[in-house]
Design a protein that fits this description.
Blueprint: H1 2-30, E1 53-57, E2 60-62, E3 65-69, E4 72-78, E5 88-91, E6 94-100, E7 109-114, E8 118-123, E9 131-137
Parallel strand pairs: 1-4, 3-9
Antiparallel strand pairs: 1-2, 4-7, 5-6, 5-8, 8-9
Bound molecules: copper (II) ion.
Copper (II) ion is lined by residues 85, 124, 126-127, 130.
């Protein structure tokens, strides 16, 4: 009888500590995770964390000219409902061969990383009047791109 009581008491004690243990550290760890400190204060044109994007819509690249720091990956997205396009470097009479997306169907995207500073003209090889330009700066302006 005495042994049963003792065993039961230990079990009860363990049961309490086992139950109480996860609750105690859970409370302090839950507090530091701040969801959104300020709401709608900073309106950023580019989605945070994602690459700069050029939308292809209504037979145009938007923005037509984009300035990025060297090493930046740019993403083109075909937002047409039914028209394919390409993102081809250079000009129709003189393609530079630096990049070529091939045929981008509606909804398709293409990415290219610019590791060399310079001005990159590009066009759509299907609709050659569609032109765009990426200007790649040698180094990011201090604290701008971070
Ligand atoms: Cu096109």
């Amino acid at each position: 009888m005495a042994r049963f009581v003792q065993a039961f008491g230990i079990c009860l004690l363990l049961g309490i500590t086992a139950c109480a243990a996860p609750v105690v550290p859970a409370a302090p760890t839950a507090t530091p995770s701040s969801p959104t400190p300020t709401m709608g204060a900073v309106a950023s044109p580019t989605p945070a964390g994602g690459p700069p994007q050029v939308m292809i819509k209504n037979f145009a690249f938007r923005p037509a000219e984009l300035e990025v720091a060297v090493g930046t990956t740019v993403e083109w997205i075909n937002q047409e409902e039914a028209v394919p396009h390409t993102v081809t470097s250079g000009s129709p009479d003189q393609p530079s061969g630096v990049f070529d997306s091939g045929r981008l169907q509606p909804g398709d995207s293409f990415r290219f990383t610019f590791n060399q500073p310079g001005t990159y003209e590009y066009f759509c090889s299907i609709h050659t009047r569609m032109r765009g330009r990426i200007v790649v700066k040698p180094a990011p302006a201090s604290g701008y791109d971070y």
